[in-house]
Amino acid sequence: MNYARIIVNGGCRGRCVCDHVYAVHLRGRKHSGHGTLMFQQQLIPSSLGGKIPDVMSAMSEIDFSALKVVKYPDPRLREICTAVEEFDDSLHRFVERMFEIMYAFNGVGLAAPQVGQTIRLFIANPTAEPGGEYEGVYINPEIIERSGSDVGEEGCLSFPGISCKIKRCEAVTIRASNIDGETFTQTAEGLQARIFQHESDHLDGILLSDRMSTVAKITNRRLLKDLEEDYAQSK
Ligand code: CO
Question: Which domain holds residue 17?
């Protein structure tokens, strides 16, 4: 696959000329505290013609404050996300911003591709309240054990207004790295296990609409169509 190595500066709060979630700045300014993340070439904003300008490979920035929720059917939600390799300050700032967004929408989970960054990372908190023992960051996660089955109501910040019954495993064990790159395993059941499965799906480009029953698809047909029309109009 073809990647652009983009210098990320989460400290920059400058305005971007485009309204794109990547908000890549091309001023070429260098700040202290640079970090790096890997992005796929197709993630370059369309405002840049889908090409990677030379300057971007060296000095571009992503304005984390400009990140926003990517909604169905945006093709970025269909990417197979790439592994996180660098656990640096930029990653910390990115995760902080993800938590702000998740709590702002009363979410219980949010995957990086939902804010336009196709890296293998999600955050979760089944309480939807900031802080507490259930708040977690899961980087390069793998579900290593599954058991039981459970049907429960599920929504997704990328499918606003839609909620439907989805069958999941009742309990799972996940292995992941934390924000400092340390590996851990965690066993969860119920809602937390459901979140782990839903968010792990996002990292492989699998969406709520893929897991819906035919009946749920019919029930939510109008809402899905509205989202498709909104997306088409935003292009
Ligand atoms: Co979701």
Answer: 1-66
